[in-house]
Amino acid sequence: MSRQIKHYLGDKDVQIILGTLLRVGVIVSTSVVLLGGIIFLMNHTHQSISYADFKPEEAKFSSVAEIFKGLKTIDGLAIIQFGVLLLIFTPIARVVFSIFSFLMEKDYMYVLIGIIVLCVIITSLYLDVAH
Amino acid sequence: MSVLLFTIIVLVGAFLAGLLGSLTGLGGGVIIIPLLTLGLGVDIHYAIGASIISVIATSSGSAAAYVKEGITNVRIGMFLEIATTASAIVGVIIATYIKADYIIVIFGFILLFSAFMMLRKKVDHSNNEKTSILANYFKLNGSYPTESGPKQYAVHHVVGGFAMMFIAGTLSGLLGIGSGALKVIGMDNIMKIPFKVSTTTSNFMIGVTASASALVYLHKGQIDPAIAMPVTIGVITGATIGAKILIRTKTDKLKVIFAIVVTFLALQMIYKGLTGAA
Fold it and tell me: Rounded to a whole number, what is the distance in Å from the CA of B185 to chain A's nearest CA?
């Protein structure tokens, strides 16, 4: 019985850290998006835009490498896209975090399942689908 | 349209999407896509890219609020994520090869289905008969805290649930939505997981699944920062306020009104796809 209570408390700690991780992830990424948005709007307020046609060849920041290159020149759109990237990585951080907590529990079956999920996501990072 | 006007309209729309999405339990994506395509004439590819970002934003935002209650079953979530992430990538690949008009029509039907599911009375099928060999093997059965101590529950039909998650993931990748309605069928009806656990666990899965799709969409050039910016800020603000209102408001009437609006949007999307009036 006492072991069960201890286990439950351990889970509670994990949950609190996880909640903080998610909240920080959302707040930081939104702030970065907002910052990039302000810089972008200051420079392009009256520029005209149209999204009626899909033009993937004109997409400027469509890879991690391009986003980091754009960050160096303090490009508003690159900063927005960096914030978006942080947002995308927030749930992925949750998977990584879960793998570690399974490792601490010595539940190796779920360490493996977690790694499989992570591998699928990493595959998507390198998948180059033809336009 | 000028950049400023576009940003303001999308910001307001995304705010409402986040607000209504969290009040009614319907994700943000189902409103973002019609707003951008029908309302602002944005190409469906960009709309899907913006929507998938709004899905991650809503999922992570509300997950942060839920985990404190400690009822997410991380094992169920992680186990089913093998199906949802892999199939999400399959969905994105399918999207590359089929005509945009078909995607719009499929989206319309999923929208109709989501409206129907939102109004349907949910029945908790959970019990504690640990009969499934697979559920025992994968340690999916669990418990959640109640006022009268921890309540045990057993998971059923693991293979059926896994298959349903594969469909949900494919549609999530194809349409840039969370597929919450399908995940609910998989977890509540097929696997018989109690609401308290299925809501938060499916939310966990939605975020992870959307991340996998979002990375592929990013590479395809479908995530445009100038659209993603007002969508992210609007949805997160709306969803946060919605979650706070939700605690002290009854949403039954709102759900009916919202279902009518969603049905109307769904029919318009189907019409648009069929006539090719893109």
Answer: 22
